[in-house]
Structures are given as C-alpha cells and as structure tokens.
Design a protein that fits this description.
By secondary structure, this protein is of the alpha/beta class. It has 6 helices and 8 strands. The longest helix is centred in the N-terminal third of the chain and has 14 residues.
Length: 187
C-alpha cells in the first residue's frame, strides 16, 4: 500500500503523554501496512482562532486568510488518505489546542456546506482520567460534527482511567487496539 499517507494530529500539551503515545502506536499500525505517516504536535503550532470573516467562502481555491500553521494542516488534510485526531479530555471536552484546529476546519467548507476536500477516513483518540463512558455524549457529538465536515469516522478509541502520565503505555489491550486501528485506516 505504498504511496498512501496517514496524518495524526496530537492536541495534548503533554509531550510523550497518553494521547501522543496512543497516536504514535496507531501510526506504527499504519506504517506496518506500508503507509507514509506524519505526526503533528498542535501544541507547538501557532493556530489563530477563526475570525468568522467568511473569506474562505469567497475563495474556493484557498482555505483561510490567516497564514499561520493551519496552512500546513490544510495541506496535510488534502494530501492524506486518512487522518487521526487525538486529544485528552479536559473539562468535559477536547483540549484547546484541538478545538482551535477544529474551529478552523470551517475553511474546508464552501457555501452550501460542500467540502473543498475529498472525504477522508478518520479515527479519533480521547485519553481521559475518567471511566470509559463518562464523556460518551460529547464524543458522539464530536463524531457527528466531523462527519458533517465530510470525515468518515471509522473508529473512536477512548482511553479511560489514563489520568496519570504514561498510564496508557501499560495497558496492553489498549495499545494493541490502537495498533489495529492504525493498521485498518487504509483498508
């Protein structure tokens, strides 16, 4: 399957934390199928908030008037066959780093809510210190929103009881599932 690309976006501010660990395991799975893999650390990127100016709706061949690191993300989205978005759950929702990127996905839409990019397979990763079903309604709403944006959400990996730094790595079933999901992203 060479020539196919999977890009992971990590919304955790913790370098080497549970979210990053799970994303890297998913990328290992994708790489095992021959995919080219890319890892983006959203916390180290400069992403301005959406300005609500609608420039993106008036300029069908571009995504956003803000020329920040989101331009790299737009290119990644265009050039990837599958995408993974990972975030810790903070205050019952995705991290601020992840939310800033997602808000700027508005630039992917044309008037009439048509997408500027082809549909992409998407896997989501949520690491959390709480039990598994604690944020299921929020996660379901996130899936629905991303589906609206023309992402085909194929898998959601919830990493429960992972509030301690490095705790995901010790959960062999969770790590194996992350690898399997990554390997299946190009099926």
């Amino acid at each position: 399957m060479s020539g196919l690309r999977v890009t992971a976006f990590c919304g955790s501010p913790r370098k080497g934390g549970n979210t990053e660990t799970l994303l890297r395991k998913m990328l290992q799975g994708a790489e095992s199928t021959g995919a080219e893999v890319v890892f983006r650390d959203l916390n180290s990127m400069s992403i301005r908030g959406c300005q609500g100016c609608d420039w993106c709706k008036e300029n069908e061949s571009d995504f956003c008037v803000n020329k920040d690191d989101m331009q790299t993300i737009y290119k990644d989205l265009v050039n990837s066959d599958s995408v993974i978005i990972g975030s810790p759950v903070y205050m019952f929702q995705m991290s601020a780093q992840t939310k800033a990127m997602i808000d700027r996905f508005f630039g992917l839409l044309l008037p009439g809510f048509k997408s500027k990019i082809e549909e992409k397979k998407l896997a989501l990763v949520f690491s959390q210190g709480a039990p598994e079903d604690s944020f299921k309604d929020y996660i379901a709403a996130t899936e629905k929103m991303l589906s609206f944006l023309k992402f085909n959400v194929t898998d959601v990996l919830v990493a429960p009881d992972c509030g301690d730094y490095g705790s995901a790595e010790g959960k062999t079933d969770l790590m194996a599932k992350a690898f399997r999901i990554g390997a299946s992203l190009l099926d």
